[in-house]
Each structure stands twice: as C-alpha cells, then as structure tokens.
Amino acid sequence: MALADLLQAIEADAAAERARADRETAAEAEAMVERAREQAGALEAELAAAPEAQARWEAEQALALARLDVSRAAASARDEAFVSVLAGVRAKLAGLRATGAYPDLFRALLAEARAALPEAHELRVDRRDVELARPFAGGLLLDPTLETEGGVELVSDDGRSVRNTVEERLANAELLLRRRFAQRLATAGVTVP
After folding, report:
1. 134 near 103, Cβ under 8 Å?
2. Which of 4, 67, 69, 165 has most Cβ atoms within 10 angstroms of its Cβ?
3. Cβ distance 150 to 165 under 8 Å?
4. Contact 178, 82 (CB under 8 A)
C-alpha cells in the first residue's frame, strides 16, 4: 500500500472518528438538553403548584373561619332567642300572683315543701302572700321576708331549708328548657350548629 493510500485511509478513519464523536457529542448534548427541559418542566410544575396549593390552603382556611363565624353567629342568635323566651316566661311568672290559679299553686308549692322538710318551724313568704299563707301556716312561724314572684321557703331549727318558688323551679328547669328549645328549632327547620 502506498503512502498516499495509507494517509488517505488514516484521514478517512479520522473523519469517521470525528463524525462518530460529533454524533456522540450531539446525542449527549441533546440528552442533556432533554434532561434540562424535563427538570425545568418539573420545577415549573412544582412552582406552579406551590402557589395553587398555597392558595387552596388559604381558601380552605378562610372557609373554615367563615364556617366558624357562622356557627358562632347561629349559636349567639339561638342563645339570644332562648334568653328572650326565658324573659317572656319570667314576665308571665311576674303576673302569676294576679291570676285566679295562684292560690292553688301556692298551696301546692307549700305542700311540696312541707313534704320535703316536715320538721320545718318557719314559713317564709313574700309580703304580698301573707294573707294567703296565714290559713296554711299550721303552727309555723310566718316570716314575710322572702322576695319572690310566688312560692315559699321552709326553714328547720337546724338551719336546713327548702325553697320552692317559681323562680327556683324555672332555674332548675332551664337546662331542660334549653334542650327542648333547641329541639323545637331543629324540628322547625332552623339549623342549630
């Protein structure tokens, strides 16, 4: 083989090697660019999702706070309505003494108190009930110092007492009344939180 042929073969090999190296470099560069694109896309998606996730979280927080505010407002309105109903009941109790049913109620309250404290020696009544109480005192010391819309208080020698007044009975029934009020609101279609 002549020197020219050898040089030509070396040049052809070198050209082929350069072409192969160029192809490998181009393929490697293309793979790097593709990886960079993928990473950029992933980063872009992550960055795009981060504000969306943050915005979604903030919206959920705002919604939860709004629900809490609505719940508080509904509870407050329900409590105000119950207090109003209770005030109406108290107003009715304030006028109870003027009704024809009061003497029977007074006797019943006194009988219950006597059954609860048979050894009582003192009967406390409102000054407005002294004349009503006199025939039922039955040996009890009559004391007109009780301030009530209706009812009695019995006291024994050892200091025990039984207060059986309409106010006490209302106070004792308040929890049950509140529960029934809430049930009525619920059956009437009023949402109770």
Report:
1. no
2. 165
3. yes
4. yes
What are 141-174's pLDDT values in tens digits? 999 999 999 999 999 999 999 999 999 999 998 9
Please, are residues 82 and 170 in contact by the beta-carbon 8 Å criterion? Answer: no
Check whether residue 60 and residue 128 sit in a common domain.
no
| Distances 95 to 102, 150, 152 between C-alpha atoms, Å | 10, 10, 17
9/73 same-domain check: yes
What CATH number did the domain enclosing 164 receive?
3.30.2320.30
**Tell me: the pLDDT tens digits for 4-15?**
555 565 556 555
Nearest to 173, CA basis, from 116, 90, 64, 53:
90
Measured CA to CA, the distance from residue 111 to residue 69 in angstroms comes to 49
What domain range is 115 assigned to? 96-171
Model-level pTM greater than 0.85?
no
Number of structural domains in the chain:
2
**Alpha carbon of residue 33 to chain centroid:** 57
